[in-house]
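Weekly structure sync - notes
Attendees: PM, LS, DV (DV joined late)
Agenda: review two folding runs queued last week.

Item 1: First target. Sequence and structure tokens pasted below for the record.
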Amino acid sequence: MSIVIIGGHERMETQYKEICKRYKCKAKVFTKMKTDLKSKIGSPDLMILFTSTVSHKMVHCAVSEAERSNAIVERSHSSSASALIGILEQYA
């Protein structure tokens, strides 16, 4: 399962990827808005939005790409490791 994580904390980026690896998922993490974010997202199975740490512009871009690729969008106000684990328990 491929996952894209939008938002979260930069210092947690490697931890997010390790948690996803434990659930046999391949993850891309975008903590900051990049100019070519739209093209880098690809077509994931699941998109996780950490809403407390992400801009509206980034959310809009991510959601439009998720709709285009028919990805599941899961929103979480918390960007903690336990929040990510809870979401992965549900989907992976």
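Item 2: Second target, run right after the first with the same settings.
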Amino acid sequence: MAELEKDESKVTLKSEDNMGFIQIADDVISSIAAIAVTEVDGVSKLTGNIPTEIVAKLGKRNLAKSVRISFDNDSVKIDASIEVKFGYNIVEVSKAVQERVKSALESMTGLKCSLVNVRVSGIDFTEDK
């Protein structure tokens, strides 16, 4: 596995085979996690008040502000706060968010994701049109 170094706004992965390094900005990691959250069926929006229906209109960069990341040794921890659509099982939706975020981060960045904390901050009672 590559050596991981964290600084103020990015993570650097140093190659074991001396081919160089890869830097990934924190906003990239946050955006990947946020997009993964919004792809889960039953999630109405992130706490940042960005409904899943308007993600495409606003752009992916705004999503990064809705997810907090932190690093613990060689792994990343994610904190996401969501609103769940009425009628969906909160525990099942939350577990799906955890699985989707972890899978997306590990497959897209190669970083180990040790924790995905999901906070359900509300229920969306609006009816889909």
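Discussion on item 2: Residues 10 and 25 are 4 Å apart (CA to CA).
Action: LS to circulate a short write-up before next sync.
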